[in-house]
Structure formats: structure tokens, C-alpha cells
Write the C-alpha cells for this entry.
Amino acid sequence: MPLYYSCLENTMTNFYYQKDSRTALRIYDNVVDNEKELAIVDADAKIVFSAIMEVECKKNKSYFKNFADMAGESRILEDSGYCVYDLNERYIISGDGVSERDWIYESELIEFSKKLNENKKKIKAAISELVVSSGVAMALLYANYSQQCAVCV
């Protein structure tokens, strides 16, 4: 048992258990909330990228193959090329809902990263749309106000 866990291992364990909510797309109808959501998604993307940078390719392929066969994760293991992010004896529940493992497959991390980057693009597009629509609304208000002032004079 390790004497300590790194901050990234703790964060990735928590992220994995909350992966559905943390990779879900949330777009709001105002710029402020969208910018807050963008900051959260960007922070999550950086965490996942840090984990991807620490991925290791394992030499003991038979252990991982046997575990993946038992847990129904053979496809994920093969997609990862036997490369995993080691959680240093912090355990997560595997795909079968029963087995525990102390790693996250590289393909899972890449999938998280893709979802988060897609969410960032969509949130940025929503922010741009809100800014443009509010600019157009302000221009129309000004044009309407200018016409009313011309009639008053």
C-alpha cells in the first residue's frame, strides 16, 4: 500500500465516479453562467490531459487480459493498447459493476477528453451566440430610440 496518493490520482478517481455528470453538456441562457461552466469544463479537460500524459503501457499483458475478459472490458483494453493510467491502489468499479480495478484505460481518458473538448466548443459557440444576439438587440433598441427622439424634436 502506498504511503501517499498524488493529487491527480485522487482527482481522477473522483472524476471517474462522477464522469457522467462531469462530461454532460450544460448550456445556460446567459453569458455569465456559460463562462462559469466553460471554466469548470476547461479545468476538467486539463485534469484529464494530465492523466493522459502519465499513461503507462503495461508489460504484464496476461494479467490485464484476464481481468478485462472477466469484467467484460476486452474491447476497451485492446483499444487502449494495454496502456492505462495507474491509480496507485485507489480502486474504481469496473464495467461489470462488481470487479474493482486500480487503473483507468487510456481509451476511457481519450473519450473523456473528446467529450470535454466538444463541450468547450459548444459552450463557446453558445456564448458567442448570446453576445451577438444581445448586441443586435441593443442596436435595435438604439435604432428605435433614435427614431422616437427624431419624432419628438
